[in-house]
Design a protein that fits this description.
alpha/beta, 547 residues, five-stranded antiparallel sheet, single chain, NAD(P)-binding domain-containing protein, 3 domains, 17 helices, 45% helix, Rossmann fold, signal
Length: 547
Amino acid sequence: MRLISLVLLLASYRVDGLQPVARHPPLLATSSRVAVRCFALSAMTGDDSANGGTSDGELMSELRKALSSLDEGELAASDERVIDGFVDDRKGQVSAFQEDFDRSLEAAQEAIESRLEGELRDVESDFMARVDAAVENLRKSSATGDDTTAAATAAANAAAEGDGIPAASIPAGGLIVVAGAGTPLGTELLRAIGGSESGWQLRALVADGATLNVGDVECESMPFAPFTPTKLARSLAGAAAVIVVSAAAGGTGGVEPEVVPKILKALDANIPPRRLIFVSTHGVERTDKLPYNLRNVFGQLDKQRAAEQEIILKARRMCPAFTIVRFGALKDSPPSASASAGRAQIQPSDVLDGDLPLAAASSLLSKVLLRDEAINATLSAGPAADTASAIGDEAMYWEDEWLKLVGPEVYRRPLTVLPVEDAILWLREWAQRFTRPGQQLTTPVSVQDVDDGVLLRFLTRAGGGYADFDAEETADDKWAAAKPGASKLESGEPDGALLLVAESRPTPRVRVSRAEMAEGTVVKEMSEAAVLAKLDKALTELEKARR
């Protein structure tokens, strides 16, 4: 075996100085091949000098002689091939290493730059906050500065209260500031407000280097620098209303959730805006349902919900009103769109889905600034309902949509067979069922006839708390409830209500909305659900019988 290894080793070496030739040597001359084979055969059969065969020295001599018979050209070509193969192999290894190194270096540079950028922003923000605090202290130490600020604040308050306009209303000449103006929705909104007859001034907050195209609309542009408190405060100064277009709703150029607190902190507490409007997205209250649970995998909708809460809390502390408007995906409006294409459907809370044209979304937002129904309201917007065409007048259509926020509305059903007059009488009679033994809700109620319908008023229990929803009512309970004065003994103060009405305009229908909802009144969700389910079932059966 020692000789076999020696053969293989020598086959790859040149005779002169035993230099390496190739991993796979070139074709040898016939005599050389014979010599090598003989050498290998002798090694395999075990022939050696001890057995009377050829010695190792003789075999090596024969091998050198065979290899020396190769001409220089063959040896040079073999060496060239070996060297080329070696170089190519090393080049491939070096190239692969260089690519891996470049990728690693690029990733490391990006990580370092991102971290440095974040740290620099924090340092800059902290530094500017210190500067602002120092400037504020200097102002407070100046009597002249105090007099000027007090006079300006007093003049602004007098203008707000002395013009006969509610505090949440925006006066003529008021300044509307739009953060996220660089988004398609923000740009379209500026055009919609500028094209109206409101007489308001416009200011767009845009990122450094961004361009704004609002056509002929007169609009001031100022930098949006959320990490520079002084600049941001200057950009928001004097605003009668601030509209924040989120990135979730408006796309690239919109305001990210983590930036919202910085905007709110930069508002002037001495002369706060009259309205804060936040443009959000569908699904923030439906993260347990498809498809919104998939969109919330990394907490995007939860962050959006937190930003909404920041707006609401800030408004309750310093502003007369807030409005949260939630949109789905926004698409370009078709060039040949009809006038009704600018319509949208609105509903309280977060119940709608669907895409909306930019024109409809911007039109809705511009109307929010004018409507008292939108004060301290959260609403979702979606495509206009199929029945929207039944209301031809544009003003009447929007009046009917804003009506949904009064209460707010919790149920609406068109009347196809039953006359409105009959529906009013039927509602009053039907509501009495909830005062009869065995028909009560989990919450005590009283019934009162009103114009066009009936008021179902919820009452607190005199003993405190509400009835057990799962408790079964016994015969004794029914007789006790039927005794004169029993409801008076068991019931307490009014605690919210449902208003059930039948209307003929703009179309025949039955509507139910909440009423008497004072601050802190708890919504009776189970009782409301029971009333609405029974009402819908009874109306379906009634209209079916009238056909």
